[in-house]
Design a protein that fits this description.
The protein contains three helices and seven strands; from the N terminus they run E-E-E-E-E-H-E-H-H-E. It has about 100 residues and is of the alpha+beta class.
Length: about 100
């Protein structure tokens, strides 16, 4: 299973339990595309370190929340697809992204 990481061209700030993500394209912050993640989304975002895959993230969520592994994995996969569609994450092996 592929390991994913946060793209390096995103600026993130933690505010309480939420994470704010601003993509930086061509050295300019894209203020039209600001993303706000809730507590669960923030936890997943913080686990995207290039060493963790979707299954490992789902297992971590099962340890912390009252959710089955299959539910957690489905939610994690949906969330990762949304992050990928927004160009906020990349495969860990990708260079220069």
């Amino acid at each position: 299973m592929m390991h994913l990481r946060q793209r390096q061209d995103c600026v993130t700030r933690q505010i309480g339990d939420e994470t704010i993500i601003v993509p930086v394209r061509a050295h300019v912050a894209d203020l039209e595309a600001i993303y706000t993640l809730n507590e669960m989304g923030s936890m997943i975002w913080n686990l995207l370190d290039g060493h963790t895959n979707a299954r490992q993230i789902a297992a971590t969520l099962c340890e912390l929340y009252d959710v089955t592994y299959s539910e957690a994995l489905q939610d994690v996969n949906e969330f990762l697809h949304a992050l990928e569609a927004a160009s906020l994450i990349a495969p860990a092996a990708a260079q220069g992204v």
